[in-house]
Amino acid sequence: MDAKILIESFAEFARSKNVDRPTMIRILEDVFRAMIRKKFETDENFDVTINADQGDLEIFRIREIVDDNSEDIWDFDKISLTDAQKIEPDFEIGEEVYEKIELEEFGRRAVQMARQTLIQRIKDLEKDILYNKYEEQVGEIISAEVYQILSREILLIDSEGNELVLPKGEQIPKDRFRKGDTVKAIVHRVDMINGNPKVILSRTSPVFLERLFENEVPEVYDGLITIIKIVREPGERAKVAVESYDDRIDPVGACVGMKGSRIHAVVRELQNENIDVINYTENLELYVSRALSPAKVSSISVNADTKRISVFLKPDQVSLAIGKGGHNIKLASRLVGYEIDVFRELSEYEEEDVVLEEFSDEIDEWIIDELKKTGLDTAKSVLALTKEDLIRRTELEEETIDEIFRILRTEFEQ
């Protein structure tokens, strides 16, 4: 393989990988200089000129002519007068000899190795370019096409043919994709595994929801409305605390849009995830009350030392505060940064009811706490549910629930 074919084939490969010309020339020179060092032990007195467009390569060995008996004759950058005159008869001592080195002089094996090295250098460069490109886009939304669906992840390709990964744990549970579908997600992180960049996408991250709001709500994108915090149960429910420093702007109204036009686009992308947009306030009790929306809170008691909040609601509001699967109260707790305990206000006809703490000598305290987390703070509120309801709403075992029912029923039978 001559120099022209080697350089042209490399240049074509490099251009197909979108490598710029200066980088291409630098890689070529590095590889040829490595060949020179291997053959001549040094490349300090060599001049390498490359024209990638024409496929031209010129390598010159530069040496100073010294007398045949000189002590410096064995230096790498010196040549004896006799040897110099074999190249050009009229050379004299003190002049420099520019001796052209042909690629063939390095041997066929060295040239083949250089070709493989060039291709590998481009592939390594391609990996670095991919890593740096997506490292800069972490937290940003991108679109990619599904090309393979595996049990634990979905493989996608971007517009440049790069492979991206959407793991099962970063997918919304209701997501159902087919090959060829276009998927929106954020760049979650970029890992380097065995020298290969792995771009991880996410649709469950709160940042994904934040970017969707930026796309749909100009006031958020422009910074007129600030998203203070987002908490999510992907595919089920999300709570977004927003604030505006301009009194003329209603942050909640702007995010929801006329007849819900803005938020509907976000909800559709998140597989009908319910989104509560809440006006942020530093008034903790008011913030908690808003966080428990759509439930209406009657009163609140805050214990700053234990970071717990007791919330009292009318009986018909308890289930709203807790929400389907307990999502509403869990998200509210995460949003405000306090553990929230829900209690029912007793009406007149419920005065004969008994609070669960009265059974602490028969029921373990942790079990009572587990019941209270779901808004069950009295004996009758527990007995009003079926065993199946309790299994679904708590993490208690069936035998434990049977024993709770037995203890509570005995109280009222007496």
TrEMBL record:
* UniProt cross-references to CDD domains, sorted A to Z: KH-II_NusA_rpt1, KH-II_NusA_rpt2, S1_NusA
What highest taxon heads this organism's lineage?
A: Bacteria
Cited Pfam families? KH_NusA_1st, KH_NusA_2nd, NusA_N
Any idea where the Transcription factor NusA N-terminal domain is? Answer: 6-128
Its subcellular locations are: Cytoplasm
Annotated Transcription factor NusA first KH domain ranges read 203-280
InterPro entries membership = DNA_repair_Rad51/TF_NusA_a-hlx (IPR010995), KH_dom-like_a/b (IPR015946), KH_NusA_2nd (IPR058582), KH_sf_prok-type (IPR009019), NA-bd_OB-fold (IPR012340), NusA_N_sf (IPR036555), TF_NusA (IPR010213), TF_NusA_bacterial (IPR030842)
Occurrences of domain NusA-like second KH (ranges): 285-345
Keywords associated with the record: Cytoplasm, RNA-binding, Transcription, Transcription antitermination, Transcription regulation, Transcription termination
Give the transmembrane ranges: none
Tagged with keyword Cytoplasm: yes
* Matching Gene3D superfamilies: 3.30.300.20, Nucleic acid-binding proteins, NusA, N-terminal domain
Q: What subunit structure does UniProt give? A: Monomer. Binds directly to the core enzyme of the DNA-dependent RNA polymerase and to nascent RNA.
NCBIfam families tied to this protein: NusA
Record PANTHER family: TRANSCRIPTION TERMINATION FACTOR NUSA, TRANSCRIPTION TERMINATION_ANTITERMINATION PROTEIN NUSA
Main function:
Participates in both transcription termination and antitermination.
Q: What is this protein called?
A: Transcription termination/antitermination protein NusA
Q: Which organism is it from?
A: Algoriphagus taiwanensis
